[in-house]
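Need residues for this backbone.
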């Protein structure tokens, strides 16, 4: 049985050359039409050197341009010499909270805090804050009741995640066979590194102050992949990796430990009523989205046994006392031997569409939802990465513009790109182009030299959108 490796395939050198040729074009018409800047999009280079935030103007026609970069002055998380070329999975690494941009620096155990000048999108670094754990990967925030411009912020620390990769004679247990033979349910010193941490953020001056550790997690069920407050701020959810077995067509149950999805009630900076969901044969839980009334979670899973192959998406219900699975669906290609690896999620602004990103196959599986009940109505045809450079094992975070008309999908790991799509009223997506940031273009095709970390956006107000807000040239490159 041949295993499709996560970083295998055609010559990277040839692919990089092709990428650069594909990336030089400009649509032309956008500039001719004098398209206005209506918002800004941000991602991070998250490379082996200093991490930089990339700011891009977003135009009325959905194009991106006017690139600027801002240093965090700390190292990014990429490490192409590490096992699996240093890849890690998480959602919510870069977030906009009021007039502040927050981005986690996993290798530097810190969170960079930037003030945003909204009319121009310019950033000013106010500081780097200790994550009080190892490898922060996800950030979430909610307003503090009764305190205008003040926010609770939670940061999730993943730690150096134990994993099992490949199969047969190539099978590797990381960090070692000895480590994974231990009783992982027992307390360990590393438990203090897998945490969720609470902060207060002052939106006026951009200062973020640590308050307390909210919880920590045992080795058996892995470190944090995503943290997220419910829309009303009354609940906090956390996904973990478990101990996954991946990069193989036949993940072994005996090599895995289940991931978990935790739920807490949240009030006044305190969590309570901890409950969780886990299921044998499901590990590598990463992205999730909140359903109506915060009663449902739509959860993606990338490391599942063949017997659980229809669990790329699981829908959980919070009953207050416990989390239960109410639905599950396959994601990606229909071939049962295909390595899908569903990891990232985004919900449409109207709550009627859920998009699940698969890393290896570079596809998005769209699901039509009932926005009132949250029930999954049907699965729609797959969305692919279009005509741009799309090497295997590249796709990660995705966002949708607030008007629901445009999708921005990261090629994080090899193409170092933002892939643009127009969205139809029915949730369908049509490829529009591929933007290759100048900040990472020289390394295109070199897997793991960068690992674009998170993507976030905001819209300008009507008063801020005017002809003077035009920039040099909106383009896909």
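Answer:
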């Amino acid at each position: 049985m041949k295993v499709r490796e996560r970083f295998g395939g055609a010559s990277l050198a040839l692919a990089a050359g092709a990428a650069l040729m594909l990336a030089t074009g400009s649509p032309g018409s956008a500039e001719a039409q004098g398209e206005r800047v209506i918002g800004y999009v941000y991602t991070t280079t998250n490379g082996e050197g200093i991490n930089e935030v990339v700011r891009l103007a977003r135009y009325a026609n959905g194009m991106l341009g006017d690139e600027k970069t801002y240093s965090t002055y700390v190292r990014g998380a990429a490490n192409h010499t590490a096992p699996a070329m240093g890849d890690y999975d998480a959602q919510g690494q870069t977030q906009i909270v009021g007039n502040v941009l927050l981005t986690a620096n996993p290798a530097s155990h810190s969170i960079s805090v930037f003030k945003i000048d909204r009319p121009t999108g310019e950033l000013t670094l106010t500081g780097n804050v200790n994550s009080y754990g190892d490898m922060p990967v996800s950030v979430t925030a909610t307003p503090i009741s009764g305190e205008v411009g003040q926010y609770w912020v939670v940061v999730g620390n993943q730690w150096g995640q134990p994993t099992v990769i490949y199969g047969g004679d190539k099978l590797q247990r990381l960090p070692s066979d000895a480590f994974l033979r231990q009783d992982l349910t027992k307390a360990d010193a590393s438990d203090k590194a897998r945490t969720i941490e609470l902060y207060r953020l002052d939106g006026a001056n951009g200062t973020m102050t640590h308050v307390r550790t909210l919880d920590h997690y045992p080795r058996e069920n892995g470190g944090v992949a995503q943290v997220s407050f419910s829309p009303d701020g009354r609940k906090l959810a956390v996904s973990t990796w478990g101990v996954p077995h991946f990069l193989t067509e036949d993940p072994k149950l005996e090599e895995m430990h289940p991931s978990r999805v935790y739920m807490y009630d949240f009030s006044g900076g305190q969590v309570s009523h901890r409950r969780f969901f886990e299921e044998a044969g499901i590990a590598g839980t990463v992205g999730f989205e909140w359903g109506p009334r915060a009663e449902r979670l739509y959860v993606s899973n990338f490391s599942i046994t063949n017997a659980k192959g229809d669990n790329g998406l699981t829908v959980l219900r919070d009953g207050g006392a416990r989390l239960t699975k109410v639905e599950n669906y396959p994601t990606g290609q229909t071939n049962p031997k295909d390595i899908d690896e569903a990891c990232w999620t985004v919900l449409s602004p109207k709550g009627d569409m859920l998009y699940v990103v698969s890393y290896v196959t570079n596809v998005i599986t769209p699901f039509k939802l009932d926005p009132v009940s949250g029930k999954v109505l049907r699965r729609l045809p797959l969305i692919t990465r279009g005509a741009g450079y799309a090497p295997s094992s590249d796709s990660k975070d995705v966002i949708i513009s607030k008007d629901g008309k445009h999708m921005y999908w990261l090629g994080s790991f090899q193409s170092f790109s933002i892939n643009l799509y127009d969205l139809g009223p029915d949730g369908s997506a049509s490829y529009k182009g591929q933007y290759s940031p100048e900040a990472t273009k020289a390394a295109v095709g070199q897997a793991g030299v960068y690992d674009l970390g998170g993507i976030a956006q905001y819209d300008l107000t009507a008063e801020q959108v005017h002809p003077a807000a035009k920039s040099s040239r909106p383009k896909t490159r």
